[in-house]
Protein backbone atom coordinates (compact mmCIF):
# COMPACT_ATOMS: atom_id res chain seq x y z
CA UNK A 1 0.00 0.00 0.00
CA UNK A 2 1.43 3.45 -0.92
CA UNK A 3 2.79 5.46 2.01
CA UNK A 4 0.49 8.44 1.41
CA UNK A 5 -2.56 6.14 1.54
CA UNK A 6 -1.34 4.60 4.81
CA UNK A 7 -0.95 8.09 6.29
CA UNK A 8 -4.43 9.12 5.14
CA UNK A 9 -5.97 6.00 6.67
CA UNK A 10 -4.01 6.56 9.89
CA UNK A 11 -5.20 10.18 10.19
CA UNK A 12 -8.81 9.15 9.52
CA UNK A 13 -8.48 6.34 12.06
CA UNK A 14 -7.08 8.49 14.88
CA UNK A 15 -9.04 11.71 14.39
CA UNK A 16 -12.20 9.88 13.31
CA UNK A 17 -12.30 7.80 16.50
CA UNK A 18 -11.28 10.67 18.82
CA UNK A 19 -13.90 13.06 17.42
CA UNK A 20 -16.70 10.52 17.02
CA UNK A 21 -16.31 9.06 20.50
CA UNK A 22 -16.78 12.63 21.71
CA UNK A 23 -19.96 13.15 19.71
CA UNK A 24 -21.19 9.70 20.67
CA UNK A 25 -20.99 10.84 24.29
CA UNK A 26 -23.40 13.71 23.57
CA UNK A 27 -25.60 11.39 21.49
CA UNK A 28 -25.95 8.58 24.02
CA UNK A 29 -26.66 10.88 26.99
CA UNK A 30 -29.31 12.76 24.98
CA UNK A 31 -30.91 9.44 24.01
CA UNK A 32 -30.76 8.29 27.64
CA UNK A 33 -32.78 11.33 28.73
CA UNK A 34 -35.27 10.81 25.89
CA UNK A 35 -34.26 13.88 23.86
CA UNK A 36 -34.86 13.67 20.14
CA UNK A 37 -31.66 13.78 18.05
CA UNK A 38 -32.20 15.46 14.70
CA UNK A 39 -28.79 14.78 13.15
CA UNK A 40 -25.53 13.01 13.87
CA UNK A 41 -22.83 14.23 11.48
CA UNK A 42 -19.94 11.82 11.93
CA UNK A 43 -17.81 13.86 9.50
CA UNK A 44 -17.88 17.61 9.00
CA UNK A 45 -19.92 20.67 9.91
CA UNK A 46 -22.47 22.62 7.91
CA UNK A 47 -24.81 21.46 5.14
CA UNK A 48 -25.56 17.79 4.61
CA UNK A 49 -23.80 16.10 1.67
CA UNK A 50 -24.84 12.48 2.15
CA UNK A 51 -26.45 10.33 4.78
CA UNK A 52 -29.25 8.03 5.84
CA UNK A 53 -32.08 8.28 8.33
CA UNK A 54 -32.87 5.85 11.12
CA UNK A 55 -35.95 6.76 13.12
CA UNK A 56 -35.90 10.50 13.74
CA UNK A 57 -32.11 10.82 13.38
CA UNK A 58 -30.29 11.69 10.17
CA UNK A 59 -26.78 10.18 10.14
CA UNK A 60 -24.80 12.29 7.70
CA UNK A 61 -21.56 13.56 6.20
CA UNK A 62 -21.38 17.37 6.09
CA UNK A 63 -19.61 19.90 3.90
CA UNK A 64 -17.00 21.56 6.14
CA UNK A 65 -14.30 19.05 7.24
CA UNK A 66 -13.70 20.53 10.70
CA UNK A 67 -14.99 17.79 12.98
CA UNK A 68 -18.40 16.30 13.69
CA UNK A 69 -21.54 17.21 15.59
CA UNK A 70 -24.81 16.02 17.14
CA UNK A 71 -27.86 18.26 16.63
CA UNK A 72 -30.77 18.02 19.04
CA UNK A 73 -34.30 19.20 18.30
CA UNK A 74 -34.91 22.47 20.10
CA UNK A 75 -31.22 23.41 20.31
CA UNK A 76 -30.84 26.20 17.73
CA UNK A 77 -27.85 28.00 19.30
CA UNK A 78 -25.45 26.38 16.82
CA UNK A 79 -27.89 25.99 13.90
CA UNK A 80 -25.73 28.15 11.63
CA UNK A 81 -22.84 25.71 12.08
CA UNK A 82 -24.94 22.57 11.78
CA UNK A 83 -26.77 22.91 8.51
CA UNK A 84 -29.66 25.22 9.41
CA UNK A 85 -32.60 25.20 11.75
CA UNK A 86 -34.67 22.17 12.63
CA UNK A 87 -37.39 21.09 10.24
CA UNK A 88 -40.95 22.13 10.87
CA UNK A 89 -42.03 18.74 12.20
CA UNK A 90 -44.01 19.00 15.41
CA UNK A 91 -41.97 17.43 18.19
CA UNK A 92 -43.45 16.67 21.61
CA UNK A 93 -42.27 19.13 24.24
CA UNK A 94 -40.96 16.20 26.30
CA UNK A 95 -38.37 15.43 23.58
CA UNK A 96 -37.10 18.98 23.09
CA UNK A 97 -33.61 19.80 24.38
CA UNK A 98 -34.43 23.45 25.06
CA UNK A 99 -37.29 22.56 27.42
CA UNK A 100 -35.25 20.13 29.51
CA UNK A 101 -33.92 21.01 32.98
CA UNK A 102 -30.47 22.58 33.04
CA UNK A 103 -28.99 19.63 34.92
CA UNK A 104 -29.90 17.33 32.01
CA UNK A 105 -28.39 19.78 29.51
CA UNK A 106 -25.27 19.85 31.70
CA UNK A 107 -24.88 16.07 31.46
CA UNK A 108 -25.45 16.14 27.69
CA UNK A 109 -22.62 18.69 27.33
CA UNK A 110 -20.41 16.70 29.71
CA UNK A 111 -21.01 13.45 27.81
CA UNK A 112 -18.54 14.29 25.01
CA UNK A 113 -15.48 15.11 27.12
CA UNK A 114 -16.37 12.25 29.44
CA UNK A 115 -16.21 9.70 26.60
CA UNK A 116 -12.88 11.16 25.41
CA UNK A 117 -11.44 10.72 28.88
CA UNK A 118 -12.88 7.19 29.11
CA UNK A 119 -11.13 6.31 25.83
CA UNK A 120 -7.87 7.89 27.05
CA UNK A 121 -8.09 5.75 30.20
CA UNK A 122 -9.28 2.61 28.41
CA UNK A 123 -6.37 2.27 25.99
CA UNK A 124 -3.55 2.15 28.60
CA UNK A 125 -5.81 0.14 30.97
CA UNK A 126 -6.38 -2.71 28.52
CA UNK A 127 -2.77 -2.53 27.35
CA UNK A 128 -1.53 -2.89 30.93
CA UNK A 129 -4.06 -5.59 31.79
CA UNK A 130 -3.33 -7.73 28.71
CA UNK A 131 0.40 -7.15 28.21
CA UNK A 132 1.50 -5.95 31.64
CA UNK A 133 3.15 -2.69 32.66
CA UNK A 134 6.76 -1.90 31.71
CA UNK A 135 9.24 -2.25 34.53
CA UNK A 136 11.20 0.98 34.56
CA UNK A 137 14.89 0.85 35.46
CA UNK A 138 16.03 2.22 38.79
CA UNK A 139 17.35 5.82 38.63
CA UNK A 140 20.96 4.61 38.70
CA UNK A 141 23.29 6.22 36.15
CA UNK A 142 24.66 3.71 33.67
CA UNK A 143 25.84 5.71 30.64
CA UNK A 144 27.06 9.34 30.52
CA UNK A 145 27.71 11.23 27.31
CA UNK A 146 31.32 12.38 27.16
CA UNK A 147 31.45 16.16 27.60
CA UNK A 148 27.68 16.32 28.00
CA UNK A 149 25.64 18.29 30.52
CA UNK A 150 25.50 15.36 32.96
CA UNK A 151 29.28 15.07 33.04
CA UNK A 152 29.61 18.85 33.40
CA UNK A 153 27.20 18.77 36.34
CA UNK A 154 29.45 16.29 38.15
CA UNK A 155 27.32 13.17 37.74
CA UNK A 156 29.22 9.90 37.68
CA UNK A 157 28.44 6.41 36.53
CA UNK A 158 26.84 4.43 39.36
CA UNK A 159 25.25 7.50 41.01
CA UNK A 160 21.71 6.95 42.22
CA UNK A 161 19.38 9.93 41.74
CA UNK A 162 17.45 10.35 44.99
CA UNK A 163 15.99 13.84 44.43
CA UNK A 164 15.10 15.43 41.08
CA UNK A 165 13.39 18.80 40.70
CA UNK A 166 12.09 18.64 44.25
CA UNK A 167 10.72 15.09 43.98
CA UNK A 168 12.24 12.55 46.38
CA UNK A 169 12.96 9.02 45.16
CA UNK A 170 11.83 9.77 41.59
CA UNK A 171 11.26 7.02 39.07
CA UNK A 172 13.40 7.07 35.94
CA UNK A 173 10.23 7.75 33.96
CA UNK A 174 9.58 10.89 36.04
CA UNK A 175 13.16 12.09 35.53
CA UNK A 176 12.98 11.47 31.80
CA UNK A 177 9.66 13.27 31.31
CA UNK A 178 10.53 16.29 33.46
CA UNK A 179 13.77 16.59 31.51
CA UNK A 180 11.96 16.61 28.17
CA UNK A 181 9.88 19.68 29.09
CA UNK A 182 12.77 21.60 30.71
CA UNK A 183 15.37 22.47 28.04
CA UNK A 184 17.90 25.04 29.31
CA UNK A 185 16.15 25.15 32.71
CA UNK A 186 18.41 24.53 35.77
CA UNK A 187 17.15 21.55 37.75
CA UNK A 188 18.26 20.83 41.31
CA UNK A 189 19.00 17.21 42.04
CA UNK A 190 20.69 15.03 44.64
CA UNK A 191 22.68 11.87 43.93
CA UNK A 192 23.76 9.18 46.32
CA UNK A 193 27.38 8.12 45.88
CA UNK A 194 29.31 5.82 48.21
CA UNK A 195 26.76 6.36 50.98
CA UNK A 196 26.88 10.16 50.69
CA UNK A 197 24.19 12.48 49.30
CA UNK A 198 25.61 15.10 46.95
CA UNK A 199 23.52 18.08 45.78
CA UNK A 200 24.00 19.00 42.12
CA UNK A 201 22.41 21.21 39.49
CA UNK A 202 21.93 20.15 35.90
CA UNK A 203 20.72 22.17 32.93
CA UNK A 204 19.23 19.87 30.25
CA UNK A 205 20.63 20.51 26.80
CA UNK A 206 18.35 21.64 24.00
CA UNK A 207 17.54 18.92 21.50
CA UNK A 208 15.54 19.40 18.31
CA UNK A 209 13.44 16.32 17.54
CA UNK A 210 11.58 16.83 14.26
CA UNK A 211 10.97 20.50 14.99
CA UNK A 212 10.13 20.08 18.69
CA UNK A 213 12.54 21.51 21.25
CA UNK A 214 13.04 19.14 24.20
CA UNK A 215 15.49 18.74 27.05
CA UNK A 216 18.20 16.07 27.29
CA UNK A 217 20.37 15.40 30.37
CA UNK A 218 22.62 13.21 28.21
CA UNK A 219 22.76 10.18 30.42
CA UNK A 220 21.07 6.78 30.46
CA UNK A 221 20.06 4.57 33.38
CA UNK A 222 21.81 1.30 34.10
CA UNK A 223 19.67 -1.26 32.28
CA UNK A 224 21.63 -4.18 33.65
CA UNK A 225 22.73 -7.02 31.38
CA UNK A 226 20.49 -7.87 28.44
CA UNK A 227 21.07 -9.54 25.07
CA UNK A 228 21.75 -7.01 22.31
CA UNK A 229 20.35 -8.53 19.14
CA UNK A 230 20.19 -6.94 15.70
CA UNK A 231 16.51 -6.78 14.78
CA UNK A 232 16.55 -4.59 11.68
CA UNK A 233 19.18 -3.22 9.31
CA UNK A 234 18.56 -0.03 7.37
CA UNK A 235 19.28 -0.31 3.66
CA UNK A 236 22.39 1.57 2.48
CA UNK A 237 23.50 2.07 6.10
CA UNK A 238 27.02 1.17 7.36
CA UNK A 239 25.66 -1.96 9.09
CA UNK A 240 24.39 -3.33 5.78
CA UNK A 241 27.69 -2.82 3.96
CA UNK A 242 29.77 -4.17 6.86
CA UNK A 243 28.11 -7.59 6.80
CA UNK A 244 25.96 -7.42 9.92
CA UNK A 245 22.90 -9.65 9.73
CA UNK A 246 19.53 -9.68 11.43
CA UNK A 247 19.78 -12.00 14.43
CA UNK A 248 23.43 -11.23 15.20
CA UNK A 249 24.05 -10.81 18.92
CA UNK A 250 26.55 -8.04 19.65
CA UNK A 251 29.12 -9.04 22.29
CA UNK A 252 31.79 -6.30 22.16
CA UNK A 253 32.41 -2.92 20.53
CA UNK A 254 36.03 -1.86 20.11
CA UNK A 255 37.00 -4.46 22.70
CA UNK A 256 34.50 -3.23 25.33
CA UNK A 257 31.82 -5.63 26.49
CA UNK A 258 28.33 -4.59 25.43
CA UNK A 259 25.99 -5.05 28.40
CA UNK A 260 22.80 -3.58 26.89
CA UNK A 261 21.40 -1.55 24.01
CA UNK A 262 21.93 1.78 25.76
CA UNK A 263 25.66 1.09 26.15
CA UNK A 264 26.05 0.06 22.50
CA UNK A 265 24.19 3.15 21.28
CA UNK A 266 26.40 5.36 23.46
CA UNK A 267 29.59 3.63 22.31
CA UNK A 268 28.67 4.10 18.65
CA UNK A 269 27.86 7.80 19.13
CA UNK A 270 31.04 8.53 21.09
CA UNK A 271 33.17 6.70 18.52
CA UNK A 272 31.65 8.96 15.83
CA UNK A 273 32.90 8.14 12.31
CA UNK A 274 36.11 6.41 13.39
CA UNK A 275 36.56 2.79 12.24
CA UNK A 276 35.12 0.32 14.76
CA UNK A 277 35.34 -3.41 15.36
CA UNK A 278 32.39 -5.42 16.67
CA UNK A 279 32.32 -9.00 17.90
CA UNK A 280 29.02 -10.72 17.19
CA UNK A 281 27.67 -14.18 17.81
CA UNK A 282 26.03 -15.79 14.78
CA UNK A 283 24.73 -19.35 14.74
CA UNK A 284 26.77 -20.18 17.82
CA UNK A 285 30.06 -18.89 16.42
CA UNK A 286 31.78 -15.56 17.02
CA UNK A 287 32.68 -13.24 14.13
CA UNK A 288 34.53 -9.95 13.82
CA UNK A 289 32.72 -7.15 11.98
CA UNK A 290 34.39 -3.92 10.87
CA UNK A 291 32.08 -0.94 10.54
CA UNK A 292 32.09 2.84 10.56
CA UNK A 293 29.17 5.02 11.70
CA UNK A 294 27.97 7.98 9.67
CA UNK A 295 26.26 11.18 10.65
CA UNK A 296 22.45 11.12 10.29
CA UNK A 297 20.29 14.08 9.38
CA UNK A 298 19.57 14.75 13.07
CA UNK A 299 23.28 15.10 13.90
CA UNK A 300 23.64 11.67 15.56
CA UNK A 301 26.18 9.02 14.52
CA UNK A 302 24.53 5.68 13.69
CA UNK A 303 25.34 2.46 11.89
CA UNK A 304 21.71 1.85 10.92
CA UNK A 305 20.50 -1.02 13.10
CA UNK A 306 17.39 -1.56 15.19
CA UNK A 307 17.29 -3.92 18.13
CA UNK A 308 15.25 -7.09 18.05
CA UNK A 309 13.25 -9.07 20.55
CA UNK A 310 16.43 -10.40 22.06
CA UNK A 311 16.65 -7.13 23.96
CA UNK A 312 14.76 -7.44 27.21
CA UNK A 313 11.85 -5.11 27.79
CA UNK A 314 10.54 -6.36 31.09
CA UNK A 315 6.81 -6.15 31.64
CA UNK A 316 5.11 -7.06 34.87
CA UNK A 317 1.73 -8.78 34.69
CA UNK A 318 -0.85 -6.95 36.80
CA UNK A 319 -4.46 -7.31 37.83
CA UNK A 320 -7.39 -5.03 37.12
CA UNK A 321 -6.65 -2.72 40.07
CA UNK A 322 -3.03 -2.05 39.13
CA UNK A 323 -3.93 -1.73 35.44
CA UNK A 324 -6.51 0.93 36.34
CA UNK A 325 -3.97 2.71 38.55
CA UNK A 326 -1.43 2.65 35.71
CA UNK A 327 -3.98 4.14 33.28
CA UNK A 328 -4.99 6.91 35.68
CA UNK A 329 -1.37 7.78 36.50
CA UNK A 330 -0.40 7.81 32.81
CA UNK A 331 -3.15 10.32 32.01
CA UNK A 332 -2.45 12.47 35.07
CA UNK A 333 1.20 12.59 34.02
CA UNK A 334 0.24 13.90 30.57
CA UNK A 335 -1.92 16.59 32.18
CA UNK A 336 0.87 17.47 34.64
CA UNK A 337 3.48 17.83 31.91
CA UNK A 338 1.11 19.87 29.74
CA UNK A 339 0.42 22.17 32.68
CA UNK A 340 4.15 22.47 33.33
CA UNK A 341 4.81 23.55 29.72
CA UNK A 342 2.05 26.17 29.84
CA UNK A 343 3.42 27.36 33.18
CA UNK A 344 6.81 27.86 31.54
CA UNK A 345 5.12 29.82 28.74
CA UNK A 346 3.39 32.21 31.12
CA UNK A 347 6.58 32.56 33.19
CA UNK A 348 8.57 33.47 30.09
CA UNK A 349 10.85 30.44 30.45
CA UNK A 350 9.87 28.99 27.10
CA UNK A 351 8.88 30.54 23.78
CA UNK A 352 5.57 29.68 22.13
CA UNK A 353 7.44 28.26 19.15
CA UNK A 354 9.39 25.86 21.39
CA UNK A 355 6.34 24.73 23.38
CA UNK A 356 5.55 21.88 21.01
CA UNK A 357 2.02 23.11 20.28
CA UNK A 358 0.69 21.17 17.30
CA UNK A 359 -1.98 22.34 14.88
CA UNK A 360 -3.60 20.38 12.04
CA UNK A 361 -0.35 19.92 10.10
CA UNK A 362 1.60 19.03 13.26
CA UNK A 363 -0.94 16.41 14.29
CA UNK A 364 -0.85 14.83 10.82
CA UNK A 365 2.97 14.79 10.98
CA UNK A 366 2.91 13.06 14.37
CA UNK A 367 0.39 10.45 13.20
CA UNK A 368 2.39 9.90 10.00
CA UNK A 369 5.61 9.37 11.94
CA UNK A 370 4.00 6.96 14.40
CA UNK A 371 2.29 4.80 11.75
CA UNK A 372 5.52 4.53 9.75
CA UNK A 373 7.62 3.56 12.78
CA UNK A 374 5.18 1.41 14.77
CA UNK A 375 2.32 0.54 12.41
CA UNK A 376 -1.37 0.90 13.21
CA UNK A 377 -0.92 -0.68 16.66
CA UNK A 378 1.39 2.20 17.55
CA UNK A 379 -1.44 4.63 16.79
CA UNK A 380 -3.32 3.53 19.91
CA UNK A 381 -0.98 5.48 22.18
CA UNK A 382 -1.30 8.69 20.12
CA UNK A 383 -5.07 8.14 19.96
CA UNK A 384 -5.17 8.05 23.77
CA UNK A 385 -3.18 11.30 24.03
CA UNK A 386 -5.28 13.11 21.41
CA UNK A 387 -8.51 11.89 23.00
CA UNK A 388 -7.40 13.10 26.44
CA UNK A 389 -6.41 16.50 25.07
CA UNK A 390 -9.67 16.77 23.14
CA UNK A 391 -11.67 15.96 26.25
CA UNK A 392 -9.82 18.41 28.50
CA UNK A 393 -9.72 21.17 25.83
CA UNK A 394 -13.47 20.92 25.33
CA UNK A 395 -14.03 21.60 29.01
CA UNK A 396 -12.43 25.05 28.71
CA UNK A 397 -14.99 27.88 29.09
CA UNK A 398 -14.70 28.96 25.46
CA UNK A 399 -17.98 29.58 23.58
CA UNK A 400 -18.87 26.80 21.11
CA UNK A 401 -16.91 24.25 23.14
CA UNK A 402 -18.72 22.09 25.70
CA UNK A 403 -17.14 24.07 28.53
CA UNK A 404 -18.55 27.23 26.96
CA UNK A 405 -22.00 25.64 26.75
CA UNK A 406 -21.77 24.66 30.41
CA UNK A 407 -20.69 28.24 31.22
CA UNK A 408 -23.78 29.58 29.38
CA UNK A 409 -25.97 27.19 31.40
CA UNK A 410 -24.41 28.61 34.56
CA UNK A 411 -25.04 32.20 33.39
CA UNK A 412 -28.64 31.31 32.59
CA UNK A 413 -29.07 29.82 36.03
CA UNK A 414 -27.79 32.99 37.72
CA UNK A 415 -29.98 35.16 35.48
CA UNK A 416 -33.03 33.06 36.34
CA UNK A 417 -32.65 34.13 39.97
CA UNK A 418 -33.45 37.65 38.78
CA UNK A 419 -36.19 36.62 36.34
CA UNK A 420 -33.96 37.15 33.27
CA UNK A 421 -33.10 34.89 30.31
CA UNK A 422 -30.60 34.82 27.42
CA UNK A 423 -32.26 35.36 24.04
CA UNK A 424 -31.54 33.02 21.12
CA UNK A 425 -29.93 35.90 19.23
CA UNK A 426 -27.42 36.43 22.05
CA UNK A 427 -26.70 32.70 22.26
CA UNK A 428 -25.97 32.58 18.52
CA UNK A 429 -23.61 35.55 18.83
CA UNK A 430 -21.81 33.84 21.72
CA UNK A 431 -21.35 30.68 19.61
CA UNK A 432 -20.06 32.65 16.61
CA UNK A 433 -17.61 34.48 18.88
CA UNK A 434 -16.42 31.09 20.08
CA UNK A 435 -15.99 29.93 16.49
CA UNK A 436 -13.87 33.01 15.80
CA UNK A 437 -11.65 32.23 18.81
CA UNK A 438 -11.19 28.63 17.70
CA UNK A 439 -10.40 29.65 14.11
CA UNK A 440 -7.78 32.11 15.39
CA UNK A 441 -6.22 29.31 17.48
CA UNK A 442 -6.22 27.00 14.46
CA UNK A 443 -4.56 29.64 12.26
CA UNK A 444 -1.99 30.35 14.98
CA UNK A 445 -1.08 26.67 15.49
CA UNK A 446 -1.03 26.19 11.70
CA UNK A 447 1.48 29.04 11.48
CA UNK A 448 3.63 27.31 14.13
CA UNK A 449 3.40 24.03 12.22
CA UNK A 450 4.53 25.62 8.97
CA UNK A 451 7.28 27.67 10.64
CA UNK A 452 8.90 24.42 11.85
CA UNK A 453 9.64 23.52 8.25
CA UNK A 454 11.97 26.51 8.09
In words, what does this structure look like?
It is a single chain. This protein has helices at residues 3-32, 102-131, 149-152, 172-180, 238-242, 261-271, 320-346, 360-393, 402-416, 424-451, and strands at residues 37-43, 45-54, 57-64, 69-72, 133-134, 141-144, 160-164, 167-168, 187-193, 196-202, 205-209, 212-216, 219-221, 230-233, 249-253, 256-257, 276-282, 285-291, 294-295, 301-302, 305-307, 315-316. The two termini are 30 Å apart. The protein has a four-stranded mixed sheet, covered by helices on one side. Strands 8-7-9-10 form a four-stranded antiparallel sheet. A four-stranded antiparallel sheet has the order 16-15-17-18. By secondary structure, the chain is an alpha+beta fold. Helix 2 runs antiparallel to helix 9. It is 43% helix and 23% strand. Strand 17 and strand 18 (285-291) form a beta hairpin. The mean pLDDT is 84. The longest helix is centred in the C-terminal third of the chain and has 34 residues, at 360-393. It has ten helices and 22 strands.
